[in-house]
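User: I'm new to structure prediction. If I give you an amino acid sequence, what do you actually give back? Let's try with this one:
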Amino acid sequence: LTDTYIIVICPQKSKIIEGIIESKSKLATTQKSKLLLYILLKITQDFTTKIKQVRNAVIAQEQQMQAVTNKAIVVLTKNEEILNQYLFSLVPLRNVLEAIFSGRYISLYEKDYDLLQDLMIAVKQSEDLCSISVKSIRSLRDSYQILFTNDVNKTIKLLTAITIIFTIPTIIASIYGMNVKLPFATNPHAFLILINITIVISLISVFIFARKKWL
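Assistant: Good question. You get back a string of structure tokens that encode the predicted 3D arrangement of the chain. For your 215 residues, that looks like this:
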């Protein structure tokens, strides 16, 4: 900081600094501690805003849990990664604030301490919100896994029931396809009798599976 310029070291253009400059706020570079805390406050507010946006997206997914799609899972994974990155950034920021609060690196006025304490509380709240959101995502992901497992089980039960129902006529037809003496072999109405028996057994199977909620 100088009387005329603010020197910021950043790997890319900082939208926060640009926003401060474009807002034409009345900031005095002579009040170095106050200006530094103001910049850190803007950074914290930006973190909080973005964390809340991700949090709202997670809540929206929780409300639509029944409609699970691959896209929803991808979005959930991306949100978890974003929150983890925010969390990893907030911890060093809190350490910086604690170092500033110690007074060893920059001289602070009494009002600056009050602002710094509020700033530390805001960072801690952002950390907590971020951690809660990550836990919500993990819980939601576990719920998705349970739903997927239930859907797979239902599908397996349905396919098993259908297979058994269609296997019954196949077995009866296979038995009567043998060149051996069988019941109703000489009966002129053997075909109709076997068809009726097959239908009855199949209907009984359908009824049993329906009661067990396999169909």
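You can read the tokens as a compact description of the fold. Here is one thing that stands out. The chain has a mean pLDDT of 81.
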